[in-house]
Design goal:
The radius of gyration is 20 Å and the shape is globular. Helices cover about 40% and strands about 20% of the residues. The structure holds magnesium ion.
Length: about 350
C-alpha cells in the first residue's frame, strides 16, 4: 500500500467575506491510497488555520514524513497514528483509508450528487443577500445563511429586517458572526432577533420541501433559526450567558472546530447548538462516539472542500441524522463558489486536476 499526495489551490469566484477577513484561495491536499492489487481510495485534507487547525504545509509535511513501511502490511488505522494537532489530516487519512476499504470490497457506491437531506444556502455578505436569495429559493433552498459582523450592527439589523420581510414565511435564516461581535453588539442583535421571531412567525414547509429522509421543519422554531459564534473563542462565559438570556438559539462554531474543543465545551456545560465541520473536526469515528454518547443538536457544515471531502462529510451527516433526528438543514449549500468546475467531477478527475492546480 502506498500514499500519494497532491496539493491543490482553488480560487473563489468572489473572495468570501467574513469577520475573519477575505478568503480568496482555498488550499488543501488530495490523497490517494493505493494497495498492491491496484485499488485506490481517495481522501482530502482541507484545513482552515484561522479555525485553529494545522496549515496545508504542516499537513503535507506530516504525510510526507510517513515512511513507506508505515503503510506496509497495515490492517487498521489507529487514532494514535496521527497527532491531535493535525485534525484535518486525521479526517483526510481516515477517509482515504475508509474509501480504500470500500473499493477493495467493491461496496463503494457512486457518490450521489444530491444530498437526501435539505441544505442551507450561503448568501453573499452584506446587502447583496437581498438580491441573491430569490434564485436560491427557486433552486429549492429554504434555509439561508448570512454572514454578519462585517458592518455597523445597527445597519446589519436593518438589512436583516429587510431580508426577513422579503423572504417567504417558510424561509429560515441562520446568522453567522464568525466571532466578530462585541458583547454590546451581540446583545443588540439578539434583542432584534427575538423581536423579529416574535412578530414574524415561521410557516411549516410542505411535505415536498422537507426533503427525503428529513424530519421536516417544526413550526415552533423562529424565522431566525440561530446565531453562530457571536463572540471570539475566549469569551465562552459571555456566550453562555447570552444563550440563557435570549430565546434565539446560539450555536458555537469556531469555539468547537475540533473534537477536543467540542468535548471540552460539552464538559463546560454548553447547552446550545453545535456547528460541526467534519473535515476539520478530526477522527470520524470519534465524532460518531460523541453524538452517540450525548445526542447534541449538531449542524453539519462544509469548509469549502472538494467533492472528495464533501462526500465523506455528508456520509457522517447522514449517519447523524439517523441517530439524532432533527430538522436543521445541512450547511453544505456551498457548491458553485469556485471559479472552476471541480464540484461536478469524480474523485479520480479531481485527482488529475489537482496535479496542475497546486
Ligand atoms: Mg460559522
Amino acid at each position: 500500500m502506498h500514499l500519494k499526495i497532491r496539493p491543490y489551490r482553488r480560487t473563489f469566484r468572489h473572495p468570501l467575506r467574513t469577520a475573519h477577513g477575505l478568503w480568496a484561495v482555498r488550499e488543501g491536499l488530495i490523497l490517494r491510497l493505493t494497495d498492491d492489487q491496484g485499488h485506490s481510495g481517495y481522501g482530502e485534507i482541507a484545513p482552515i488555520p484561522w479555525f485553529g487547525t494545522e496549515t496545508p504545509a504542516q499537513a503535507l509535511a506530516f504525510c510526507q514524513s510517513l515512511e513507506p513501511d508505515f503503510w506496509q502490511h497495515r490492517t487498521t488505522l489507529a487514532e494514535t497514528a496521527i497527532p491531535p494537532h493535525l485534525p484535518a489530516t486525521q479526517f483526510g487519512l481516515a477517509s482515504a483509508w475508509a474509501d480504500l476499504q470500500q473499493a477493495r470490497t467493491a461496496s463503494r457506491f457512486p457518490p450521489s450528487p444530491a444530498s437526501p437531506l435539505p441544505l442551507c444556502a450561503l448568501l453573499p455578505t452584506g446587502t447583496a443577500a437581498l438580491t441573491a436569495w430569490p434564485q436560491l429559493w427557486e433552486q429549492g433552498f429554504r434555509t439561508f445563511k448570512w454572514k454578519i459582523g462585517v458592518a455597523d450592527i445597527a445597519q446589519e439589523c436593518r438589512w436583516l429586517e429587510a431580508l426577513i420581510t422579503q423572504l417567504p414565511p417558510q424561509a429560515r435564516v441562520r446568522l453567522d458572526a464568525n466571532g466578530g461581535l462585541t458583547l454590546d453588539s451581540a446583545t443588540q442583535l439578539l434583542e432584534w432577533c427575538d423581536q423579529l421571531n416574535r412578530t414574524a412567525s415561521l410557516q411549516p414547509l410542505s411535505l415536498r420541501e422537507r426533503g427525503a429522509g428529513g424530519e421536516g421543519q417544526s413550526a415552533d422554531g423562529g424565522r431566525i433559526e440561530c446565531l453562530e459564534q457571536p463572540l471570539p473563542l475566549e469569551q465562552f462565559a459571555a456566550m453562555h450567558h447570552l444563550a440563557q438570556q435570549f430565546r434565539t438559539p446560539l450555536a458555537l462554531d469556531e469555539s468547537v472546530a475540533t473534537l477536543a474543543h467540542l468535548e471540552d465545551h460539552h464538559r463546560r456545560g454548553w447547552a446550545g447548538l453545535w456547528v460541526v465541520k467534519p473535515v476539520i473536526a478530526g477522527w470520524p469515528d470519534r465524532l460518531r462516539r460523541v453524538w452517540r454518547q450525548h445526542s447534541p443538536p449538531m449542524i453539519f457544515s462544509s469548509v469549502f472542500e472538494t467533492p472528495i471531502g464533501r462526500q465523506a462529510a455528508l456520509t457522517l451527516a447522514q449517519d447523524y441524522a439517523q441517530d439524532v433526528p432533527g430538522d436543521r438543514a445541512l450547511g453544505f449549500g456551498t457548491l458553485g463558489w469556485f471559479a472552476d468546475e471541480w464540484d461536478t467531477l469524480s474523485p479520480a478527475q479531481i485527482w488529475d486536476r489537482a496535479e496542475d492546480s497546486g
